[in-house]
Design a protein that fits this description.
GO terms for molecular function: aspartic-type endopeptidase activity; enzyme activator activity. This protein is α/β, with parallel strands linked by helices. Helix content is 35%, strand content 18%. Strands 2-1-3-5-4 form a five-stranded mixed beta sheet, sandwiched between helices.
Length: 171
């Protein structure tokens, strides 16, 4: 049977979460846009860049099954770990809060349970690139990042490119 999964299920899926309308919550949008400019043609064959906004990440993850090519998900989001604004925190699957035992979350983190389930069931490596927000304006609309978060976009992009290129050397 022909693979019916969407084209964004490549070897590596960079999944942006957040909302550009709410200040620093748009961090992932800016990271994805910058990556679009920097990926080589060869990398575009292996890497899917998807800005899933706030509602779609769960839907995207629910489409993953045993037929997808994805071996790594790099999720990009604004976090709230009470760090210095703009500070990047890297999390792996085992670092995610367990929703069964922990009512606290990183950023209204309803993704952790489906993210863990999908990655464990289909043997997908997970890397979360979180940026401590300074000003998430929800429900008020404000388009733009705080200076601290804006300065972290390049750092996140550098981490992601290094991860993508590491996989290329290993593969």
């Amino acid at each position: 049977m022909e693979d019916l999964n969407p084209s964004y299920f490549k070897e590596i899926l960079v999944l942006g979460c957040g909302n550009i309308l709410f200040g620093d919550d748009g961090f992932s949008f800016h990271v994805i846009e910058k990556l679009k400019q920097l990926l080589t043609e060869e990398e575009r064959e292996r890497v899917a860049l998807l800005d899933a906004g706030t509602g779609a990440p769960q839907q995207v993850l629910s489409l993953i099954d045993e037929t997808v090519k994805t071996r790594k998900i790099i999720l990009v989001d604004t976090i709230d770990y009470k760090l210095k604004p703009g500070e990047i925190k890297i999390l792996r699957k085992e670092d995610l809060p367990d929703p069964r035992h922990n009512s606290l979350d990183i950023h209204n983190w309803p993704l952790s349970s489906i993210l863990k389930e999908v990655c464990e069931r289909y043997n997908i490596e997970l890397l979360v690139i979180g940026c401590q927000g300074k000003c998430v304006t929800k429900p008020d609309v404000y388009i733009g990042l705080s200076k601290e978060v804006e300065e972290s976009v390049d750092k996140a992009v550098e981490i992601i490119l290094k991860e993508i290129r590491k996989n290329s050397r290993e593969g």
